[in-house]
Amino acid sequence: MSKCSKCDADITFMSVLNSPNPLRLKCSNCKESIKIHSVTGGIAVAIIFALIGIVLYAFYGIEGFWLKVVLPVILVSEVGYFLLIKLGVVKISSN
């Protein structure tokens, strides 16, 4: 389930976006720490980071690199990780 174990609120995109650690989120409703399952979360983060690296390497040096490549890639990766959590591919650890 992609819900907070304390208040039963859904995990929001902003809680994923605001988290400096992709394996630890905070509930946007009650601020409870939400731990992501280390295996499924670790695999998802590793794959996402590898894809980010490949895309950034492929487009390095083009004009407007930061705005045209880096910003969209990071945003798409955050949305992708959020969707993996919402769909249950990346599991929430029970506390």
UniProtKB/TrEMBL annotation:
The species this protein was found in: Pseudoalteromonas luteoviolacea DSM 6061
Sorted alphabetically, the keyword list is: Membrane, Transmembrane, Transmembrane helix
Q: Which domain of life is it from?
A: Bacteria
* Membrane-spanning intervals of the chain: 39-59, 65-85
Q: What is this protein called?
A: Uncharacterized protein
Q: Answer yes or no on keyword Transmembrane.
A: yes
- Membrane among keywords: yes
